[in-house]
């Protein structure tokens, strides 16, 4: 199934498949939530399929996927039971070495094998160096698909050995149509807020609606407009975020805060823009730490609320 916004990527991939020589390593780059993993799986199946050889509907023996493992035995049991689980922060060097040990054998069904790493941003330093050796001397018939939300985090030597396949962000109209199709019963105001918070990522928009962040959006808008001198709104904000939010919810909350501050800049007087830009940059920094840091919910709420209130105060001071 072709996901929304993947038409250009499929054209480039299919053209390469039909060519005389397929590049051995591809870097699928774009912000999180664009469906790069879904594309990688479908593209890998096209790559390894050969005429006359039946292909399995389920897991494929010639498609190896490396991703963040459960962080401990408890989380591993959750994964085995099909429940949401907390993953390790990085892809370990042992995972790369185990993958490399399989490359000394021939593919199971045909002549090609695909290695998907999702996300390659999370490779440890040792993992990245170990992977580089395989990219420099790839076994015959082995192809790598590296998914990256933040390609700049990869070693330049890894990036230089990959053919870049970009996944652009979607426009608001496309995301609006997607939400209307996938979540027709959701609140229209929530969908509108989701579009703004997603900043072009359909996955982020769907997660926003699924997380039911409509009340959080209203509170953040109120703080950004009027401030929060008695901290009462921040107390309500804490209640809506929850005492033990998971990383997905924290990421969605930060996306919403970023969008709220960005919208604040549209109506702010020029003298207020530096302070608003600083607040926006801080939210972006926090969002980048979500995969690797365990945030204290209380401190996070105070910090987000303070940034929103500060943006409101900057606009108020320059209007005096």
From TrEMBL:
GO terms for biological process: DNA-templated DNA replication. GO terms for cellular component: DNA polymerase III complex. Pfam families: DNA_pol3_delta2. Coiled coil: none annotated. It comes from the Bacteria. PANTHER family: DNA POLYMERASE III SUBUNIT DELTA (PTHR11669:SF8), REPLICATION FACTOR C / DNA POLYMERASE III GAMMA-TAU SUBUNIT (PTHR11669). This is DNA polymerase III subunit delta. It comes from Tsuneonella suprasediminis.
